[in-house]
Write a structure and sequence with these properties.
43% of the residues lie in helices and 19% in strands. The protein is α+β, with helices and mostly antiparallel strands. The longest helix has 11 residues, at 95-105. The protein starts with a helix and ends in a 5-residue tail after the last helix.
């Protein structure tokens, strides 16, 4: 949980998302995968070079973001497979959960 708190406090969550339209329209079809270590550049490059259609993938240092065309259950980009391919451990949350955590960490105005 510490990693998520640091991430959410450090960034403007909406501006960070590489798939903002998908996240707004279907927040359960966008997933953020947080790595426990930074993956090797060669593994990242090899993973990004693959065609993941119809899903989309973006990897940024310590996180990956996946936009699923349908559901994550039918995708080759499920978080466990992605972590294995990158050779790292980690955890994943759907965009809706990321927004809920950000709301909890945002002080109320007034």
């Amino acid at each position: 949980m510490r990693e998520w708190v640091c991430l959410l406090r450090a960034i403007n969550l909406g501006a960070w998302c590489p798939f903002p339209d998908d996240a707004a329209a279907r927040p359960t079809a966008v997933q953020v995968v947080h790595f426990d270590t930074k993956p090797a550049a060669a593994r990242v490059a090899a993973t990004l070079a693959e065609d993941w259609s119809p899903d989309r993938l973006e990897i940024r240092a310590w996180e990956a973001c996946v936009a699923y065309s349908a559901t994550m259950h039918a995708s080759r980009l499920q978080h466990a497979a992605l972590l294995k391919r990158l050779g790292v451990g980690g955890t994943a949350r759907i965009w809706r959960t990321m927004l809920a955590i950000a709301d909890l960490l945002t002080p109320e105005a007034g």
